[in-house]
Specification:
The complex is a heterodimer.
Chain A (H helix, E strand, L loop, with lengths): L5 H6 L3 H31 L3 H29 L4 H17 L2 H16 L7 E4 L2 E8 L3 E6 L4 E5 L8 E3 L21 H13 L5
Antiparallel strand pairs in A: 1-2, 1-5, 2-3, 3-4
Helix pairs in contact in A: 2-3
Chain B lengths: L15 E3 L10 H20 L7 E2 L8 H7 L5 H18 L6 E6 L5 H7 L3 E2 L10 H11 L5 E3 L14 H11 L6 E6 H10 L8 E3 L4 H13 L7 E4 L5 E3 L13 H8 L4 H11 E2 L4 H10 L6 E4 L5 E2 L10 H11 L5 H8 L3 H13 L3 E3 L6 E3 L4 H10 L8
The chains are: A alpha+beta, B alpha/beta.
Amino acid sequence: MGDFGLKDALSSITSTAILEAIAVVVAASLLILVIQKLVPAVASKLSGKPRLYLLALVPLLRLLIIILTIVMVVPILVEPSFENMLAIFGALGLALEFAFKDYANSLIAGIVTLYEMPYRPGDWIEVNGYYGEVRSIGTRAAEIVTLDDTVIVIPHGLLWDTLLANGNDGTDNLMCVAELYLDPNHDVARLRSLFRDVIYTCPLT
Amino acid sequence: MTTDTDQDHPCLPGGLIPLDQWKSPETSVHKTVRAGFQDILEQLRSSITPEGRAFEKLDNLPALSAAKLKKFAPEPSAEELANALNQQLEVFRQDGHHNRPVNFLVAPPFSGVPQALVAMNRRVIMPPDNLLMSEQEVSGWWDEQLAGDDWVLPELADFWLRHRSGLSLLKEFFARVALDNAGEGVVGCSSWCWQFWIQYLPELHTGPVTLTCLTGDRLTQWLDYLASGKSGRHLTARMTHDGLYVLPARSKDSKDKYSSFAQDLANVARGNRGVAHAIWQRALRAKPEEDAEQEGAEDTPANGPKCWVAPLDQLSLPSVPHSSGRQCGHILHALLLHNGVSRAQLELVTGIPGQEISLTLARLTRAELINQDAQTSRYQVTPLGYPAARKYLQARGYPVDGF
């Protein structure tokens, strides 16, 4: 049992089963691709909460499809007995632990982002000094576009130990800070009143 | 809190209430969810047809002639509403609910309050030509206007511009009102304008009152009252698809089956009498299919005038054209805040270049969301376009009124 029974479990895999599994994976990939293109396109036509919820649905649907694909592919390749499942998932766990530790870390953090929603598409966030608008949320990482039009990929794993600042937190309101230089002898009350009027009369407020 | 005189004023069903007691018509969860899905579909549809959609009737039944429309769904009388408002305000004063010299009447657009206030037997204060006066000029202007008591200011939204230099008139006015230094008068204010100013001046307490929201029952009473006019002959209105009654208002011993049309109309219009009236006018039909008309002839409770009503799902209200920019939102918001403005004023308050404003105004006009007043050249939102405009602004995070 040095190989945890993995050899026995995999010995029954036939070429037909492999083709079948590949077909399922390809179909799932296509479905994910369609969802990734179609749902944001539909969301862009909407406004308000329906838009936000629809965009947040993309990573959720993708995760669901990935899980369903695994559930479908494993029985195709190996007989779904307790021993075989233990062998497959045990080996998978070991591989993730040693080879893809950070990847798995980000995947799990990605799942956490789905229900905690620390950021959503359209939010303005700052992580590790990078400030930008969340463009998309993937299974492993989120993409933000900075003010100088650079795309930054932020692994969800950073969530565990990094401070994240969210400017609008899913709402339409984003505070903008402008720095001004005033004469030292300015009339404070007069300037406060002027700034107040400027803010209240701005069409964006 | 409604007053004791509710029954005396069929032109003002429900009477006046303090502003903070206003509630939108109650609706079921089923209808709210359905309306939500319809709204999403509407947004998707408007993105497919980017020009937006004007009002459209989806049935083939003949609409009422202009003469019959005027008879069955006439415009509400400003004089009658003025009398009713006067009496209601008097009751408020006598009951001690309001003891300030200036009464504020806040109402959503198309409520008819400004017209009614003009029809009151009081001195009308009209806005100056220049709304961008300096603080010194403003003080002198108000001194002159508020010199005597018994004045009326029909629409406060006409006295300001959402521009840094356009706030002086109302800042000075509210300062005088707060100190009870403006004489005795009545002020009408659009709910959108009010929403801005209570945010700008959060410490302002004026005890505003408003018109009670038109629920299904109140709307039925009001439409019945408008249709019967002075003749007292009640209009019989029935649904074109199932023959259920809409008018006359249900009496206690009535055994007729009534449609939920009035309730649905009140929900679509959010209790706004002007919007409800505009949709009502478009829903009236001369006659449905032959068999339904014959069936109706037997069941008519009185020998009064008759007409038919198309279901709301057979009426397609205007929608806001799809746009990736902010122009539509800024312009619609500015029009509602100011109760209509000219093209030049729009440039000033939105900061959008004139050329772009012209293009957007043309699109909104084609979609019947706005129109231009022939006399004043001011653009304003139409009653039929108002529900779509409000939803559009709310969905995009603009501050909307509480109505």
